[in-house]
């Protein structure tokens, strides 16, 4: 299938609509972009578009719709780290604190594994770290959140990027962490340094931080006033999950500091198998070892043939994404009957004579049936 040149253009057209809180229009444009290129290997903007739809759904507190988008995403390195960070945020919004922390741990691990040093990879990794830090600070993990902020700043410095909005977000997380650590003066200095002309959500978070500062010093009247202002702004701008959380916090108070004896990278070791099992959104996952350029070319050709087959038989399934983990090329397929889907595409896979080490995973009863290929 030829590259759809409108996909990137539509994504870029949707972002200003999203920032201006014209969410219905933004979603329409993003869905048009996905319709143009439903996860094909020749469109790098598919993942960014799908993550954007998940973020908007979370802002609107539609967590089921957010999961519909997130379950379509799986890859490796920075892309997977961003998806895991968003999964962590969704779990936090659902009140699943331990699961949210584990998702963050795996996301940070993904970034530790990648070694690319180009500007886009550095910045996308920094954004993933920021999303993780925002979740951790709301869970009370102040020191870990501050550490991730430092890592994000290091990546943006290496990328040579100096973005005012990005720095505002980093400063806010630093301030929230300082407040949790009872460093009120540092938190106040940070929040006073924030430019209040920043976009809506950051301005709301500044107001929330002022409410938390007032709560900490026992100024109930000021705290309630700031909470009311933040809730009203959240509702007006359709940050509905934030409005819900603020309404609850207005009654019970800000998060409390949480200490963990292990660094963030070790958290997922406790329940890694359980966490990985929870990330099985696909009916079939084909993994092919690519030891040479010719192997990669064979995989790309297979992608096209599988996509063409399923486009002609949509009731069987769809190509739901692609990725790479080192030398392993991954093809993600989804459908209501995993066995029938694999039966349909198996001849195409076997026809390319998969290299040794290749394999297929077919979803069965909440787990995976793994079979070697080649």
Task: Furnish the topology, listing elements before pairings.
Blueprint (H helix, E strand, L loop, with lengths): L5 H14 L3 H14 L9 H14 L3 H8 L6 H17 L3 H17 L5 H21 L2 H18 L4 H17 L3 H10 L6 H17 L3 H17 L3 H13 L19 H6 L6 E6 L3 H20 L5 E8 L2 E7 L3 H14 L6 E7 L2 E7 L1
Can you characterise this structure?
This protein has 374 residues and is of the alpha+beta class. It has a domain at 280-373: Alpha-Beta Plaits, CATH 3.30.70. It has helices at residues 6-19, 23-36, 46-59, 63-70, 77-93, 97-113, 119-139, 142-159, 164-180, 184-193, 200-216, 220-236, 240-252, 272-277, 293-312, 338-351; strands at residues 284-289, 318-325, 328-334, 358-364, 367-373. It has a five-stranded antiparallel β-sheet with strand order 2-3-1-4-5, covered by helices on one side. Helix 5 packs antiparallel against helix 6 (97-113) and helix 9 (164-180) runs parallel beside helix 11. The chain is elongated, with a radius of gyration of 22 Å. The two termini are 27 Å apart.
């Amino acid at each position: 299938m030829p590259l759809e040149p409108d996909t990137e253009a539509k994504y870029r057209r949707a972002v200003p609509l999203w920032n201006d809180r014209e969410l219905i229009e933004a979603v329409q444009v993003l869905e048009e972009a996905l319709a143009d290129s439903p996860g094909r290997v020749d469109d790098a903007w598919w993942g960014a578009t799908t993550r954007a739809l998940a973020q908007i759904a979370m802002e609107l507190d539609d967590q089921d719709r957010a999961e519909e988008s997130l379950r379509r995403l799986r890859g490796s390195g920075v892309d997977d780290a961003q998806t895991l960070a968003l999964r962590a945020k969704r779990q936090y919004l659902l009140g699943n604190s331990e699961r949210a922390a584990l998702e963050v741990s795996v996301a940070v691990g993904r970034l530790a594994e990648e070694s690319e040093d180009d500007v886009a990879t550095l910045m996308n990794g920094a954004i993933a770290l920021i999303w993780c830090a925002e979740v951790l600070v709301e869970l009370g993990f102040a020191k870990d959140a501050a550490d991730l902020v430092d890592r994000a700043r290091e990546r943006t410095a290496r990328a040579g990027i100096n973005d005012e909005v990005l720095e505002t977000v980093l400063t806010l997380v630093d301030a929230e962490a300082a407040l949790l650590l009872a460093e009120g003066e540092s938190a106040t200095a940070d929040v006073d340094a924030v430019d209040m002309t920043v976009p809506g959500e950051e301005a709301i978070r500044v107001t929330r931080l002022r409410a938390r500062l007032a709560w900490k010093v026992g100024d109930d009247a000021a705290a309630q006033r700031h909470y009311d202002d933040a809730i009203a702004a959240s509702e007006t701008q359709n940050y509905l999950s934030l409005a819900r959380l603020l309404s609850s916090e207005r009654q019970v108070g800000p998060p409390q500091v949480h200490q963990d004896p292990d660094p963030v990278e070790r958290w997922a070791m406790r329940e890694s198998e359980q966490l990985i099992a929870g990330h099985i959104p696909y009916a079939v996952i084909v993994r092919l070892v690519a030891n040479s350029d010719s192997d990669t070319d064979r995989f790309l050709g297979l992608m096209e043939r599988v996509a063409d087959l399923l486009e002609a038989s949509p009731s069987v399934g769809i190509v739901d994404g692609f990725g790479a983990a080192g030398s392993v090329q991954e093809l993600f397929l989804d459908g209501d009957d995993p066995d029938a889907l694999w039966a349909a595409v198996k001849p195409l896979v076997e026809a390319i004579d998969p290299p040794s080490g290749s394999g297929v995973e077919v979803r069965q009863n909440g787990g995976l049936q793994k079979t070697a290929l080649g």
